[in-house]
Amino acid sequence: MDSILVTGNGPLDGQIPIAGAKNACLTLMPATLLSEEPLTLTNAPRLSDIKTMTALLQSLGAEVTTLQDGQVLAMSSHDLDSHVADYDIVRKMRASILVLGPMLARDGHAVVSLPGGCAIGARPVDLHLKALEAMGAELELKEGYVHAKAPGGLKGGVVEFPLVSVGATENALMAATLAKGTTVLKNAAREPEIVDLAQCLRKMGAQIEGEGTSEITIQGVDRLHGATHPVVTDRIELGTFMLAPAICGGEVECLGGRIDLVEAFCERLDAAGVSVEETEAGLKVARKNGRVRAVDVVTEPFPGFPTDLQAQMMALMCTAEGTSVLEEKIFENRFMHAPELMRMGAKIDVHGGTATVTGVERLKGAPVMATDLRASVSLILAGLAAEGETLVNRVYHLDRGYERVEEKLGNVGARIERVQGE
Ligand code: EPZ
């Protein structure tokens, strides 16, 4: 298992290219199941999660060819020879559940393993299942698998989400494109990844209105055709790398960064004394003067502050002047980075979904353990600003969501290297 060794090394300077969004790509890829014609994605990120989704689609009989060093995914699912998404793949990546809606919509049957929980929470899929039932699906849970049927195809219906769910909105949106009649998704998620999915589905011939708002209306069509679509910029990778100059000092330009993807996050950076400037090429970030100020953070569904940037923001607050209160309102157990940051000298008090951070002048490098994707990168950010060496273990979490992180940070002056594990 590889580790990443980071040595605190002062201000950063230079440019970091931002890749296509993992969480957009993981819902765009299953969309290939909705059509017998080819779907090609460009600007795809090169991540282990994309490889997992590729393997899942191939296990169903879809063809997925990666071109241009993984940045282009040429897919086609002319005919599927399996409709079973196996536990072995699904347990590795929860997003696998996103093949359920498309398979059911296309062929009227699907068998998908329940994903099981993960480090940050139980993460049930009940909202996915209820949405499909509202479209006429018959579901049966057997030995850890969802057996879904839609004899005669799915029918349009009204889906009222009791809470905002990105994945359930995506599953329902994809299924509704081929349902007979009109489907309305109420209290739908508004994330940019859903807007990106809707735009791709529309290119494939889907009739969708309202994406990006909390009510999406879909008029089902008989079939969808192929398309080519660029994956939207990854707002979480963007926010993560914007925090590097904020925590270390210096100035970094995030190429391809779009302010509309990170407005709530930028509002907090501004309050903390970090400047963000829109340039021709992206977003230029610098600390205005000296230590950042402590600010409070509450995670919310988009357009609120993203839960996927909470761990990274906590790392910054560990070195801020003053006390910051971070409230995690999306997942029930998303502070596992806190004890690891405390090993580096951070002062953090966790009570339920609230973490109170009292900033310290300087963190101290230490061996730490990555527990989930975003926690692992928050430890790297802390290591960039800490005195001495920080060894982040179990970085397979990191490789799920960040392509070549040591190269991107190394190119702007960070002292960071990957240590091959045994
Ligand atoms: C997506 O997960 C993202 N993953 C997550 O990013 C992100 O943290 C999350 O949305 C919230 O923004 C992908 O897009 C692949 P949800 P998802 O359904 O769809 C509860 C990362 O680091 N819920 O919006 O699984 C759930 O437990 C990952 O890239 C139900 O109760 O998130 C959670 O508390 C981590 N029943 C809340 O809703 C359901 O059926 C929001 O979950 C579904 C969800």
TrEMBL record:
Residues 7-409 form the Enolpyruvate transferase domain. One of its GO terms (biological process) is UDP-N-acetylgalactosamine biosynthetic process. The modification 2-(S-cysteinyl)pyruvic acid O-phosphothioketal is found at residue 118. One of its GO terms (molecular function) is UDP-N-acetylglucosamine 1-carboxyvinyltransferase activity. It holds the Pfam family EPSP_synthase. UDP-N-acetyl-alpha-D-glucosamine binds at residues 94, 123-127, 308, 330. It catalyses: phosphoenolpyruvate + UDP-N-acetyl-alpha-D-glucosamine = UDP-N-acetyl-3-O-(1-carboxyvinyl)-alpha-D-glucosamine + phosphate. InterPro entries: Enolpyruvate_Tfrase_dom, Enolpyruvate_Tfrase_sf, MurA_subfamily, RNA3'P_cycl/enolpyr_Trfase_a/b, UDP_GlcNAc_COvinyl_MurA. The active site is at residue 118. One of its GO terms (cellular component) is cytoplasm. NCBIfam families: murA (TIGR01072), PRK09369.1 (NF006873). This is UDP-N-acetylglucosamine 1-carboxyvinyltransferase. It comes from Roseovarius atlanticus.
